[in-house]
Amino acid sequence: IATTTQVVLPLGQIHRAPEPYCTLALSGHEWVMELIIGYLKCIHCELGMYVHVFESLINELHAFCNNALGHTDSRYVLLEEQLAIFLYSCVTGLT
After folding, report:
1. Contact, 43 vs 54, CB < 8 A?
2. How many helices (H) and strands (E) does the chain have?
3. What is the reported pLDDT for 53?
4. Which long-range CB contacts under 8 A does 73-78 form with residues at least 24 apart?
5. What is d(CA 34, CA 43) in angstroms, rounded to the nearest whole number?
6. Considering only CA atoms, which of 38, 15, 18, 16 is closest in space to residue 26?
7. Residue pLDDT, tens place only, 11-37
8. How far is residue 78's CA from residue 84's CA, in Å, rounded to a whole number?
9. SS3 of 36, please?
10. Which single residue of 6, 14, 30, 75 has CA 20 to 30 Å from 68?
11. DSSP string of 45-79?
12. Between the CA of residue 86 and those of 9, 48, 72, 75, 79, what are the distances in Å?
């Protein structure tokens, strides 16, 4: 006796294979640059701001840095990555 299994979906609902949200296999600075360059929709979800706002904020932080008042690249972590880490933790609540 063969048994079959059938999934019953509500009328009008079509089952689609899940699509990956983001297919980046990068980390660190490469992840930030890939978000800026290639994933314009993802950057808003990941960092909570659009790319033009992120770039403006980076420019402002660099301008303050030139006046010795603001942030700068650390020895191993660039300012873009530092800002992305901060924003990502604010958006997701992860520490």
Report:
1. yes
2. 4, 0
3. 92
4. 77/28, 77/29, 78/29
5. 9
6. 38
7. 556 666 666 555 556 677 888 888 888
8. 10
9. helix
10. 30
11. HHHSS-HHHHHHHHHHHHHHHHTTSS----SSS-H
12. 42, 11, 14, 17, 11
**Under 8 Å between Cβ of 41 and 90:** no
Quote the CA–CA distance of 82 and 77 in Å, as a whole number: 7
- What tokens does 68 get? 């010795």
User: Any idea which residue has 């800026």 for tokens?
Assistant: 36
**Mapping DSSP to helix (H, G, I), strand (E, B) and coil, where does residue 17 land?**
coil
Structure pTM? 0.66
Are 19 and 41 in contact by the 8 Å Cβ rule? The answer is: no
Tokens of 87: 């924003």
Q: Cα separation of 43 and 36, whole Å? A: 7
